[in-house]
Amino acid sequence: MSTSATLQTAATTGTSERTRAVAIAALLGLGLVFMTGFAPATALHNAAHDFRHTQNFPCH
């Protein structure tokens, strides 16, 4: 009896955590899309340029 109750609780916890993770990922993704959509082009270029330098990627 206790084994089935433990398995049911674990399954419910996993589903809850998965739903929370998906919601957080969606909010972060939407935030990135809106931030880049409203950011000035020079700010995006500078951010990409700095990222290329941190990854040792030759860009110029």
From TrEMBL:
Recorded superkingdom: Bacteria
Record's keyword annotation contains Transmembrane: yes
Chain ranges passing through the membrane: 21-41
InterPro entries: CbtB_put
UniProt entry keywords in alphabetical sequence: Membrane, Transmembrane, Transmembrane helix
Pfam families to which the protein is assigned, alphabetical: CbtB (PF09489)
NCBIfam families in alphabetical order: CbtB (TIGR02459)
Protein name, as recorded: Cobalt transporter
Organism: Methylobacterium gnaphalii
